[in-house]
Amino acid sequence: MRTPFSPLATLLLAATLLTLTSAPALAAEKAKLPNIVLLISDDQGWTDYGFVGSKNVSTPNLDKLAATSRTYLRGYVPTALCRASLSTMATGLYAHQDGITGNDPSPKTPENRLKMIARHDKLPSLAKILGKAGYVSHQSGKWWEGSYKRGGFDEGMTQGFPKPGGRHGDAGLEIGRKTMTPVTEFIDKAVKEEKPFLVWFAPFLPHAPHNPPERIFKKYKGKHPGGIAKYYAMCEWFDETCGTLLNHLEEKGVADNTLILYVCDNGWIPTERGRYAPRSKRTPYEGGVRTPIMVRWKAGGVEPAIDKKTLVSSIDLLPTVLAATGLQYPAAKSPVKKLPGISLLNDARGEEAICADRVLFGESFAHDQKLDNLFQTLQHRWCIQGDWKLLLSYPNGGAGQSPKFTAELFNLTEDPAEKVDLAKENRKKVKELQKKIDAWVQNSTPYTTKSL
């Protein structure tokens, strides 16, 4: 006569059988998760790509990527300063929300550098969110927020302040310029272990120093003034590194199920002396904030197309990753309960177009950051809707209830170089867009030390 199972034994047996039967299903589901690769250029003008129409610079690898992606030519970053821009990509928040508005603390308070880095410690961010879902991750290139480990990456190159050279990347800045091995070896390992992966690829290119290899520079030397020729060669050098990474994904057989996102941290207009021209880097003009943004994910149904009209932003990158992976933003751990950006996936798949009346927002702050009051160093706020761009400049910062500003209004379709200010003759449009900026500021939760 058989001894009947006790209720506890029955439950344990059922749990065991459920685990055994669901394990393959869970493994299969995990295998479907897309890999994530962020390609981030550094100080590149939005027109300096072959696929945008440039006759000055050769970018064959990015041209190929653009042809196989949903490529948005009206892409923007909210802040045209590298640290704040990169932070936005990692957190999905505006600079005034994640508390990173400048590159460095005030020279009068250098001890605040670690306090700035610590602001990321308690914020949900790309690598941390994906890590909770079983992703492995790798950081290379620019990374200001301390060690790669502090950013939630499993592996990486940047040791971070206070290590020597740890201000904005240390050993991470060698990627592309000296080696590609750390990234390719990481991909090899992740593929071998059958783990979904995240690659943060933000090489110090085409950023100065403009010292391209002679084999590339000779293509441009003599055709353009010295400083400009070197910059164009740097753009091609960056393109070459992207080709190495993209080809490696193909060789490993994982390219189709990899969500590739391309963006530049801020713009650049070259000069003969090798510096950047006015109205480019660090400014809210098109030369500073505009960038192509690409989305490629063949297995995810992204339909390749060149989109010349739709407004998108780097603030949309994290929502797009979350939509692709089916993950939720951990709002309970953030001062912001809802990300301000949108997923680009439905539009990129051809399923649901982004609203034609969408408004993009951005802001500029001083290079050196005051930790106690972010808005004391506010310089600009701007918005774009359709053809129109309103730019508000704050000569005395943005502190107070009604900060003083001057306004500029541009029709970007007719005047993409922003040469003609139409504010005086279009006061109605200025007021209309100003109200949208005011509402954006009022409705977006600002960073405070108490909010985390």
What is the tally of beta strands? Answer: 15
SSE class: alpha/beta
CATH topology (level 3) name of the largest domain = Alkaline Phosphatase, subunit A
Stretches with pLDDT under 50, minimum 5 residues: 1-30
CATH class of the largest domain: Alpha Beta
Order of helices and strands: HEHEHHEHHEEHEHHEHEEEHHEEEEEH
Percentage beta strand = 15-25%
Number of helices: 13
Distance between the termini: 63 Å
- Average of pLDDT: 92
- Structurally, the number of domains stands at 2
Helix fraction, binned, reads 25-40%
CATH superfamily of the largest domain: Alkaline Phosphatase, subunit A
Give a quick account of the main beta sheet: strands, pairing sense, barrel closure: 9 strands, mixed
CATH architecture of the largest domain: 3-Layer(aba) Sandwich
Q: Using the CA coordinates, give the radius of gyration.
A: 23 Å
Broad shape: globular
Explain this structure.
By secondary structure, this protein is of the alpha/beta class. The chain folds into 2 domains: 31-356, Alkaline Phosphatase, subunit A (3-Layer(aba) Sandwich), CATH 3.40.720; 361-443, 2-Layer Sandwich (Arylsulfatase, C-terminal domain), CATH 3.30.1120. The chain is built from 13 helices and 15 strands. It is globular. The termini are far apart. Residues 1-30 have low confidence and may be disordered.
Task: List the topology elements.
Elements: H1 7-32, E1 35-41, H2 60-67, E2 70-76, H3 82-91, H4 95-98, E3 104-105, H5 113-118, H6 126-132, E4 136-141, E5 155-156, H7 181-192, E6 197-202, H8 214-217, H9 226-251, E7 258-264, H10 286-289, E8 290-296, E9 305-307, E10 312-313, H11 317-325, H12 345-348, E11 359-365, E12 368-369, E13 378-385, E14 388-393, E15 406-411, H13 427-443
Parallel strand pairs: 1-6, 1-7, 2-9, 2-10, 3-12, 4-5, 4-6
Antiparallel strand pairs: 2-8, 7-8, 11-13, 13-14, 14-15
